[in-house]
Amino acid sequence: MNNFLDTLGSIFGSSDRLPWTDADIIANCEQEAAGAGILESSGRSESYMRLSWALVHSHQPADVQRGISMLEASLASMGGALQQKEILYLLAVGHFRAGDYSRARRYVDQALELSPDFRQATNLQKMIEDKIAKDGVIGIGLAAAAVGIVAGGIAAAVARRK
Fold first, then answer.
1. pLDDT for 24
2. How much is the pTM?
3. Helix-then-strand count for the chain, H and E
4. Coil, strand or helix: which one is 21?
5. How many C-beta atoms lie closer than 10 Å to residue 19's C-beta?
6. Residue 114, exposed/middle/buried by CB under 10 A (0-12, 13-18, 19+)?
7. How far apart are alpha carbons 146 and 152 in whole angstroms?
8. Strands (DSSP E) found in the chain
9. What is the pLDDT of residues 19-53, one digit of tens each?
10. Which of the four pLDDT bands, split at 50, 70 and 90, describes residue 2?
11. DSSP 13
């Protein structure tokens, strides 16, 4: 029985091992970024990256979307390969948190193309693949249950007519 409950917990539970931020951390990053005068800039500063990091790791969907928007805007003006892989990774985190797993996979794959030994990206890639697989299993289970209910209803209707 315990194995069954553990299996259910692993299917329906969250495998998100990424850090979370709260409103205080985000507020501190916003103050730092405002103090550095970069909220409207191209996104090349460390303060901007810390704010983006805090936003995509937030519990609040609006913060995550804001972080994604900031990072997507900075893609055009990326610095070197190191900053590019960090932006791609953070975009993957944001889309993962937003539930857009196909985009998350695309961004994490791009980050790994730039740096195949990027351990955080490798771990995120595994979380994305696990989430996609779990969602597929749950979807198949729900579809099978729906088919079973419909078939049972049809069988009951046919039996009632006889």
1. 94
2. 0.70
3. 7, 0
4. strand
5. 10
6. middle
7. 10
8. none
9. 899 999 999 999 888 876 654 544 447 888 899 99
10. very low
11. S
